[in-house]
User: Fold these one by one.
Assistant:
Number 1:
Amino acid sequence: MQPRPASERREELVALYREARSCTRCPLWQGRTQVVFGNGNADADLMFVGEAPGFHEDQQGIPFVGRAGQLLDELLGGIGLTRADVFVANVLKSRPPGNRDPEPDEIEACKPYLYKQVELIEPKVVCTLGNFATKLLTRSSRGIRSVHGRPQIHELGGRRVRIYPICHPAAALRTPAVKAELQEDFARLPELLAQPSLDEPAPVPAVAVPP
Ligand code: URA
């Protein structure tokens, strides 16, 4: 596939955001204050995908601004990154009432936005936070407990991408053992990001030149 300039991809991402802002594909639009499309670096190597906006996210239109978001910021700081370096989005772009779990038909209606985001941002690594994002993007019913911390390669948005499932920060806030596990998994992210992009041609081996 021909590489597309970052500026062109960014413009399309903005157009996608405008479309999402007035989305009525599922009934959640009726209860939302605003769409939480996602934010950060539109050309990031690392993308995070959470579950759905909560109360504060719905109020501010920005993902992960509550306590789980503070933990995400802290973990990012631990590997020398800030929110401006990465792109953060959710499976659902609108808040489910009372922060209940996303319903299958809501995920189905919303997933084209997420797939298009991955296609336009072209991340090297997509870090899925918790069960909903992991099951959707790995197209598997295997839960986060059995797959966290192990990268998988999948085709997403027309490219091969490393998916790295880790626990949701909200679960880590509830259980100290999960927080320790999340910190360990997070610490492996720099190594994963340092790997060559899966689209890059393999380096040409050095050939000995005869004298
Ligand atoms: N939890 C999520 O999954 N997403 C958010 O944006 C906030 C909390």
Number 2:
Amino acid sequence: MHIPSLKEAKVRSKKLVNISEYILNQNLKELGLGKKYYIRTYGCQMNEHDSENIKALLESMSFKETDEMEKADIVLLNTCAIRENAHNKVFGFLGRVKHLKDENPNLITCICGCMVQEESVALEIMNKYKWVDIVFGTHNIHELPDILNRLIKKQERQIEVYSIEGDIVEKNPYKRDSQYKAWVNIMYGCDKFCTYCIVPYTRGKQRSRKKEYILNEIKELMKDGYKEVTLLGQNVNAYGKDLYDDYDMSNLLEDTALTGIERVRFVTSHPWDFNDKMISIIKKYPNIMPYIHLPLQSGSDRILKLMGRRYTKEEYLKLFNKLKEALPYSSITTDIIVGFPGETEKDFNDTLDVVNTCKFDSAFTFIFSPREGTPASKMEDNVTKEEKEARLETLNQLVNKYSKQANMNYLNKVVPVLIEGYSDKDDNKLMGYTDTMKLVNVKGDESSIGKIVNVKITDVKTWSMDGEII
Ligand code: 5AD
Ligand code: SF4
């Protein structure tokens, strides 16, 4: 049994990170024969991608996926810790899982992901949710086959959450959600320690993957017909800093573009590490998509300092303007937190000011949520909940106005769209994303799925557009 410790998770050891390659224990190949699994994923792209890994591990043991939880022999919740409401959703859903477990004691129940990396959550599940059979963390996903095997063989509850990251595991299998676009991890963890953020505790220290492994994975994806890769990390612009002296994110982006894959994306950028070389590489290669997610978090210098973001409003605007100048066609989106401890009306107005200046293509907006163990959770907070909600509402209205305005520029224009499949909302329509990451719905048939087609935009809304394939 391993329970994570917050104190240990904070530590950044200088220890060299080893690389190991994943190999399935051949004795476990039929462990799940005739059995089904159901997985529910909360949170960010990193978690979505981890679930693709978990699915492949289960399928390598002959489990089959079901999207009906009631029919499953094993139920897994891959959880998120970023804000309190992510927690609440998981604990809410656990009630439903408990109900199924009461009806069928043979059901295997499993919780994994960022939430269980929190010491208090791991302890709570251990002590109060005794019917949960397996708990594993973000650092040992590759151990799932062995953990499952031990549970089944020994009939003993398995709680295996490590505080500290281990090796980088290569050659992970993935059952990818899409046949056309793929996530590719380029690094794990984060060392930025923004004061509000739990990620450096739940995902460990920054560890970049070796470029050879990344580029080989992309070449394999191309052989399998993939059109688009998204290079994934908490802080991708810091790629390589922990591994190379002379190879950084701009080099990796360039090498990725040179593989010839049709579309290259990357998330998430931190303004601090966004250098001029990066901008010129994005400009140079047409297969690097003109889309940048550049979290602002706040427009107030005072709050940015308290957040530990390491840039000022002025510096953010300078970078934003540089990007827009070099890449006028690009879309830029952002993340903003309102109601950080002690945020005054003036601080909030500074945020609105940046939004009015940058007119983001879209923004993800959040109310500050104190995360246990982070410095910001201990800061004095005298802003009322009502005030925070009112600020969020004001911000959202402004953000939505600019999203619609940005989309209006697309009306009657022809843009390239990678058609991914049928629209969730309307079976008669196909959906896909433009190079600039705008969601587009179009009329069409199966023959366009998986292709990058030219679409004339006929109508725009705040969050999507309609168009016709031409
Ligand atoms: N409270 C509210 N929002 C947060 N984010 C990260 N931590 C918190 C928190 N404690 C937001 C940031 C980040 C995005 C992924 O989630 O805006 O960029
Ligand atoms: Fe969290 Fe900051 Fe790291 Fe992003 S850069 S994951 S906000 S600590």
